[in-house]
Amino acid sequence: MDIKYNRWKNITAVMLGTINNETFFKARSVSVVLDELRKWNENAYVPKVISIGPRYNGRQELLPMEEINWRCMFHLFNRSLGYTISPDKYVNNCMDTILKMDVAVRSSYLGEIELDRYDLAAIVFNDGCFLLEFLISGSSIDSVIPPFGGRISAIGPNPALEIGKMEVVMRDHTLLENQIPLFVLGVLFQNIFDKGFHYLVHEIHNRALSLFGFHGDLKSVDSKFAHFLELASWNINKE
């Protein structure tokens, strides 16, 4: 069958698949800083500790966080221990799914992303796994699906708990260009954990809200958020 037709079908299926309650998609939602603003204080728009998404990935000053990201990912996938599929299988499933969502991910960013689909998928996969573990740690989900089946990790404590206490990290999470679309977290959650736990997806969003000072149940909020900055802005504007 025609290759372009198959690609069109796949793109359509992926884009439609992102439009539901857990994996909300919004095109061009991750914007860029206008040059007129950037020239006055460029440092105000640049992450100091952690890169999220493709804009600042690979910057020398942000590389020290990469080891912490990998440790968080290790804890995340070891939350699957004790279920029917090995962690390696979950990793492969997630990688395949993120790669297939290239169009949806790429369409979330304003402007051209000059990365091929594999490089972009690698960044989004790594950062998405880090953010998912960052949000699960310390949340109600932590005790429901503990890493290592509740046993002590051989590589030490989960760094995500300490990261959440760092103001500079929270600041980096709300920078305009330092974002990945939140639907990625929903997709990763659904690929990593058994369907019996999918009811917990909304708790991820509740946890994100709590980190920005909102204490309540997101089910009672008639809003959908494309990324962390949009969520933080909503929290400020509602007050």
Notes on the structure:
The chain has one domain. It is globular, with a radius of gyration of 18 Å. It starts with a helix and ends with a helix. The model has no long low-confidence stretch (mean pLDDT 80). The chain is mainly alpha-helical.
What's the layout of helices and strands?
Layout: H1 3-17, H2 35-38, H3 65-77, H4 87-100, H5 102-107, H6 117-136, H7 141-144, H8 160-163, H9 167-173, H10 183-192, H11 201-211, H12 228-237
- Rg: 18 Å
Number of domains: 1
Instruction: Estimate the global geometry from the Cα principal axes.
Output: globular
Report how far the terminal alpha carbons are from each other: 55 Å
Proportion in β-strands: under 5%
Question: On the 0-100 scale, what is the average pLDDT?
Answer: 80
Question: What is the element string, with H for helices and E for strands?
Answer: HHHHHHHHHHHH
Discrete helix count? 12
Give the total of beta strands.
0
Helical coverage, percent range:
40-55%
Describe, in short, the structure shown.
The protein is an all-alpha fold and 239 residues long.
Feature tags:
single chain; 239 residues; mainly alpha; 12 helices; 49% helix; globular
